[in-house]
Amino acid sequence: MQPRDLSSHVAYEAGRGVEEVARELGLDPGSLVKLASNENPLGPSPAAVEAIREHADRIHSYPKASHADLTAELADRWGLSTSQVWLAAGGDGALDYLARATLEPGDRVLVPEPGFAYYGMSARYHHGGVATYPVSKAEGFEQTAEKVLADYDGDRIVYLTSPHNPTGSEIDLAEVEELAERTDEETLIVVDEAYGEFSDGPSAVDLVDGRDDVAVLRTFSKAYGLAGVRLGYALVPEAWADAYARVNTPFAASEIACRAGLAALGDAEHVERSVAVARDSRQFMYERLDARTWESAGNFVLAEVGDASGVAEQLQERGVIVRDCTSFGLPECIRITCGTDEETRKAVTECNELLRETV
Questions:
Q1: Last residue in a domain, options 265, 285, 319
Q2: CA 181, chain centre distance (Å)
Q3: For residue 140, which of 285, 287, 294 has the smallest C-alpha distance?
């Protein structure tokens, strides 16, 4: 017996980890700086760490109360009802729930290129088709409703990413609203705001309560520093409330994840520090990196370095792990996560030295 035909599916390519690179190169893991996966260089909130410790002896119980508490806290924060908050194991889990609730076999989704590979992966898992619209380097990675509509053909879901990964560009709220107005009634606009805390712009959540065709994704993996516990959520229209219980896995987020998320939400200072670190790191890279960069509203910067694979490989040997963006269709670019002052300086110094050597 064989699995079903998966030849049209692609494997998700994650950023390389410290232990993996250290083993491969025979280096001390402590000597490496990982700036490849847009993780929080400050780590999680101390309050979240304490909550994990405090509730570790309760993991034999299903997370019913903690799930409800976190849902209520998020609903209050965003001014929505609890039924509009869909908790999941990471933002990708929320993507799967939206796909389950929306797609019939053969329905098509429209995704940005370059963009987060899991949009298309999730659609294919649910027997949907995938089309793309360009977020073009030639146009400064600008995102507008008109550019998306040029490739729209009645697609069931249209995915937007703001801030966009890997470029850092944003789409204005007015453009999101225009897109929702000009697409079919049965098209859902999903705005992925995984990096939303790092942006100064308004959230598309402002559109969710007044419409039935806009949903927003958020995560605890970035600004909250909880990537390792896998916690994210979707914010959906009121009309979608009944669907969650029909499509989610039982106890969609773990006890530890929910307790950590609740504690992290209560530590606004940690998020503010994380955003400030990212802002300073971005500015340092704009000013000091000897490569073309683009303004980013995320916790990363895209840089044009020529041979991205070669540069990324040689930077690893110098102790800095960055993301080769060849898999995003940008073989000349690397993405550098915003690190601490020390980490950012090391990345810029090593990258500049390498670029000078290869000229």
A1: 265
A2: 25
A3: 294
Q: CA angle 290-324-130, nearest 5°?
A: 130
If one counts every other C-beta atom within 10 angstroms of the C-beta of residue 247, the result is 15
Q: Among all chains, which residue has been given the structure tokens 């076999």?
A: 105
Question: What is the band of 18 on the pLDDT scale with cuts at 50, 70, 90?
Answer: low
What tens digit of pLDDT does each residue of 257-278 get? 999 999 999 999 999 999 999 9
Closest to 273 measured CA to CA, from 11, 46, 21, 121 = 46
Greatest CA span in the chain, whole angstroms?
59
Tell me the two tokens of residue 138.
């030639």
Instruction: Please tell me the total number of residues recorded for the chain in this structure.
Output: 359
Mark whether 104 and 249 lie in a shared domain. Answer: yes
**Backbone phi and psi for residue 296, each to the nearest 5 degrees, phi listed first:** -125, 140
DSSP 3-state assignment of 268? Answer: helix
Q: Are residues 179 and 311 in the same domain?
A: no
Is position 13 within any domain? no
Asked if the structure places residue 3 within a domain, the reply is: no
d(CA 67, CA 89): 12
If asked whether residues 39 and 96 sit together in one domain, one would say no
Instruction: Give tens-digit pLDDT for 287-345.
Output: 999 999 999 999 999 999 999 999 999 999 999 999 999 999 999 999 999 999 999 99
HSE-CB of 11 using CA atoms within 13 angstroms? 3
Query: Is 4 inside a domain boundary?
Result: no
The H-or-E segment that residue 273 falls in is helix 268-288
Structural domain contains residue 35: yes
Q: Which domain holds residue 342?
A: 18-43+269-358
**pLDDT (tens digit per residue) in 220-229:** 999 999 999 9
C-alpha–C-alpha distance, residues 199 and 191, integer Å: 14
Structural domains of the chain, count: 2
What is the C-alpha separation between 180 and 172, in angstroms, rounded? 13
- Angle at which helix 18-25 crosses helix 308-317, to 10 degrees, equals 80
145 has a pLDDT exceeding 90: yes
Q: What would the pLDDT profile of 174-202 be if each residue is shown by its tens digit?
A: 999 999 999 999 999 999 999 999 999 99
Quote the tokens at residue 94. 């929320």
Average pLDDT, the chain: 93
- The DSSP element (H or E) to which 109 belongs, if any, is strand 108-113
